[in-house]
Specification:
A four-stranded antiparallel beta sheet has the order 1-2-3-4, with helices on one face. The protein has one helix and four strands. It has one domain (2-93): Nuclear Transport Factor 2, Chain: A (Roll), CATH 3.10.450. With 94 residues, it is an alpha+beta fold.
């Protein structure tokens, strides 16, 4: 019985974590599209990973390629931890 309870807790926490990851991905992509002034239809994600930055609780580094021009953009999206999850602070691309 104890193993069953532990398994249930692990599954629940994993599902909650997956939901937060999805929200972070969606917020990151929406913010990048807004900063670049484009549409998701015109860009391709080349890489995306969590990184440490000094002034954010979580940050996502994304390399984007413009499909038509071939130009690459490096973007950092920062999030602050809140009780209900993570809140997008800002995105900077260069």
């Amino acid at each position: 019985m104890r193993k069953l309870i532990i398994l249930a807790l692990l599954i629940t926490s994993t599902m909650a974590s997956a939901g937060r990851m999805k929200d972070i991905y969606i917020d990151t992509m929406d913010s990048i599209v807004s900063v670049l002034g484009t549409s998701e239809d015109y860009i391709r994600v080349k890489s995306q990973k969590f990184v440490s930055v000094q002034d954010a609780d979580i940050a996502v580094a994304t390399i984007i390629q413009d499909i038509y021009s071939g130009e690459y953009f490096e973007c950092i999206t920062k999030f602050d931890k809140r009780e209900s999850g993570f809140q997008l602070r800002n995105t900077a691309c260069r």
